[in-house]
Amino acid sequence: MNEEHKTNAQLLDELRALQKRVAELETARTRAETLQAVTQALSQTLNLQQVFEVILRELQKVVPYDSSSIQVIQNNRLVIVGGRGFENLDALLGVGFDLDDETNPGVQVLRTKRPQVYGDVSQHPHFLAQIHGGGKIRGWIGAPLLYGDRVIGVITLDKFEADFYDAELAELALAFAAEAAIAIENARLFETERAAREQAETLRAATQALGSTLSLREVFELILTELRKVVPYDSCSVQQLEGNDMVIVGGHGFPNLDELLGTRFDWRGEDDPAGEVVNSRAPIIIGDVSARFKHFTEETHGRGRVRGWMGVPLLFGERMIGMLTLDKFTENFYTPEHARLAQAFAAQAAVAIENARLFDETRRLLQETEQRVNEQFTVNTISRALASQLDREAIYDLVGAPLREIFDAQVIAIAAYDYSTNTVHYPYFVERDKRLRRQPTPLSGLAQELIRTRQPLLLNENAHAQLAAWGAHLSVGKTPQSFLIAPLMLGEQVTGSIRTDS
Questions:
Q1: Fewer CB atoms < 10 Å away: N or C end of the chain?
Q2: Pick from 43, 339, 342, 40: which is nearest to 190 by CA?
């Protein structure tokens, strides 16, 4: 009977063990099906933000939570990029944590690459902060987002009751997190490729726009307009390198742009980041330029509003011709990716600037050449005409009329000096295209200066004051801005002059 009773007991134990195993297998099957459904759900989108939302929705079906967050590594920080169940979610999104913060259990998850389970975190320093629940959160799981051997972030799960989570749920969260990591990386890769295509298209369009004109002024304006499509800025300048000076030749976003245009400054100055750009010939990023350089706190340079700053060299081949400066009112705004894009744009901008500059230079030289040819033709015409004339009045007309065309001046005067009477006679005098008769005047200080130097006199500044000091007789009420007088020579003697007033 004892043996028979023992056998029945053993059979009952075996039955119970078998039932437990069946239940475990059923649970495992259910979880596997759930994870499979999760995998399918996560594969339905490649939009990164939608992936975060699907992860948080499907996670609730696998491991219950009252609140949950997705945190990924960005620029050496652990940043909250998604969440559910938080009253202050908008305040949490974008919050980042230092990767060496030992008080953050999420950092321990990253380092161990294993899930961490806490029965009660309500007294934990990290969770006492109001932004992290103010002690309301009790049970907590942190599961690493593992993509192969690389950890890309963590998923956190919170419960408002203590000792809710155990090792089994932690392993389940780990399995879910592995699928979530794949979905995140796939979406990241897709968005990176899409962003790269968009950036390439933007740069291509910007390059086409820059090549649409050969006007230097229009090129500067296009650079500023098209650059904003490639890299954001609050204000931006185009600066040309001239020796030891940078010259501001264009700008956007400055309230005092008229004051800035044409401003020159020595790029070698210690209180300006331009020197770093010139010396490195590479983009320079400064997180807070107003804190580092005093002159950015001055009114002309934004009164300390500019924080993020990037300087990008304009390189034409091996030659640096200037730089672009980009300003943001946000600290630490610019990234190496911004620098890469700005540098690619600047390479095209430098070509556009040089093409426009060479076009302007060629056009100027052609105009100067044409002007010289016309002037020489006029001189030759006058010379031939003078050689055929003996009448003095006709000679004055032959000389005066072409001078009016060449100089386009207010006054054209031909004077003859009479040393016997110390007077100046005006056989030819035209003011504002009207031929006038003028009475002889004394040989003034101006005439005496011309006789002494036997050289042309050109006055472009303070002409009226200087002429008055020499005793020159000017038309009443006329104040020339520019004055040119040249001697008429007969051998070594000054016999008269030709004068133009503008």
A1: N
A2: 43
